[in-house]
Write a structure and sequence with these properties.
about 350 residues, alpha/beta, three-stranded antiparallel β-sheet, 13 helices, about 35% helix
Length: about 350
């Protein structure tokens, strides 16, 4: 089947693919700019985006806010007129400042989850905004509040399911029910969210477990206007992660993909490695706080998730947390962004 373009207000992506935001340092200007140039929506993750700055250890938030603008501008140069967005987690410390930094730098779209982005319209102004939801109830709460408080509706809705990578908006029991026991079918929830999005006249895209074109066609047939893909883009030449990080995906087997308890209080999906074994054995790796997520409790956390994610993305895999989606084990080679986008066009 041929696919239609994805319209987000006055924005138009030739291919209905949004590249998922992946922190820390996995989707920066290199990946986002390439996806935008190829006709999709390139997305920069603002999660600890300034980790490479020499002052990051002492002033993490200030380094991050500076890097937001720098990465957006670099992506814009590569995007060839394409759409460049950012993903900002609601649970981020000083969330509003990150949104303002993205707006000031000219981001086309702000995607926001890991909590309900209730104040996003007030901060974002005229910038296009998209909440990430996992249920019809979440979208209903957000849309009603935004309408009453700001007389505004979302420009896009991202429906993120239980097979996504990184932190997940589900309990362990819900994840098992959807992905292990088959007790629940997440497609039922997707249909319910799409139905509400249609009522609101807002385009909906589906995320989590999208790996090949057939996955996209499945959700387009259900009424989605597009998909968000993250894991597939990790093993590309343009991805901003280290070669060792990408190789971890290629080497992973299906049984290596596990659900972990993140120190910030959410379940997450990652590749099993020596670091996770050390954590399971009771070792503690908490060395200072990098001011990332408001739900983290540094006094009791077994490790700093920022440090673990930086170690992984820079290639120190045995000291790091390798977040991934449920299909990471399917990667068997390094691809180009252009090849993937061609498959989905």
């Amino acid at each position: 089947m041929s696919v239609n373009e994805l319209r987000i207000g006055d924005l138009c992506a030739r291919i209905p693919v949004i590249q998922g935001g992946m922190g820390v340092g996995v989707s920066l200007s290199g990946l986002a700019g390439a996806v935008a140039a190829a006709g999709g929506v390139g997305v920069i993750s603002t999660a600890q985006i300034g980790f490479r700055d020499p002052d990051f250890g002492k002033h993490p938030i200030e380094c991050n806010l500076k890097a937001v603008g720098e990465e957006i501008r670099k992506a814009r140069k590569k995007a060839d007129g394409g759409i460049v967005g950012v993903n900002i987690m609601v649970a981020t410390r000083r969330y509003e400042d990150y949104v303002k930094a993205a707006v000031d730098a000219g981001a086309d779209l702000i995607i926001s989850g890991a909590g309900l982005p209730m104040t996003l319209p007030e901060i974002a102004g005229n910038t296009r905004i998209a909440p990430v939801v996992s249920s019809r109830k979440s979208l209903s709460v957000i849309s009603k509040y935004w309408k009453k408080k700001y007389d505004r509706k979302p420009d896009l809705v991202v429906i993120e399911g239980p097979e996504a990578g990184g932190h997940l908006g589900f309990t362990r029991e819900e994840i098992d029910a959807y992905t292990v026991t088959g007790e629940k079918n997440y497609d039922d929830e997707v249909k319910a969210v799409i139905a509400l999005a249609d009522e609101l006249e807002v385009p909906a895209v589906v995320a989590g477990g999208i790996y090949e074109r057939a996955d996209m066609e499945h959700y387009l047939a259900m009424g989605a206007r597009g998909v968000q893909i993250a894991t597939r883009f990790v093993t590309t030449r343009e991805c901003d992660a280290s070669d060792a990080y990408k190789q971890a995906y290629i080497d992973a087997k299906k049984e290596d993909i596990v659900i972990v308890n993140s120190p910030v209080g959410m379940p997450g999906r990652a590749i099993h490695n020596a670091f996770l074994d050390k954590v399971a054995a009771g070792e503690r790796f908490m060395r200072g706080c990098r001011q990332c997520i408001i739900t983290c409790k540094p006094d009791t956390a077994p490790y700093c998730i920022t440090e673990a994610l930086i170690n992984a993305v820079e290639g120190r895999l045995d000291e790091g947390l390798i977040f991934c989606g449920s299909n990471a084990y399917r990667a068997d080679k390094i691809e180009t962004v252009a090849d993937i986008m061609e498959e989905f066009s």
